[in-house]
Each structure stands twice: as structure tokens, then as C-alpha cells.
Amino acid sequence: MLFTYVMSDWEGSTNDSHILLECINNPENKFPMPKRDQYYLVDS
After folding, report:
1. How far is it, in rounded angstroms, from Cα 26 to Cα 21?
2. Which branch of life, at top level (predicted)?
């Protein structure tokens, strides 16, 4: 198992897409974007 990015300080309940969008859109999170021919397979 390879963890590329972990965001552990989220408070309350939410869904996967909300957290993913927050990670991508907020530059402070330093989310590693994949190259054009790559993608992430995620689950929570």
C-alpha cells in the first residue's frame, strides 16, 4: 500500500468528493497532481 497524500485534520462528516475538491483547489494543501497520462485510484 502506498499513501501519496493524507489529510487527517478534517472535522465533522463529509463525502469523498468534497474533500478531494478541497485538496485540489487549496494550494496550501500541496496536493500532488498526477501527470496527464496518469490518474489516482482512491478509496476512503
Report:
1. 8
2. Eukaryota
Q: What is the pLDDT along the chain (44 residues), one digit of tens a residue?
A: 566 777 777 777 777 778 788 888 988 888 888 888 988 777 76
The CB-side HSE value for 20 (13 A sphere, CA atoms) comes to 9
CA pair distance 30, 24, nearest whole angstrom: 8
CA distance 33 to 25: 11
pTM greater than 0.85: no
Gap between the Cα atoms of 44 and 16, Å rounded: 7
Cα 15 → chain centroid? 12
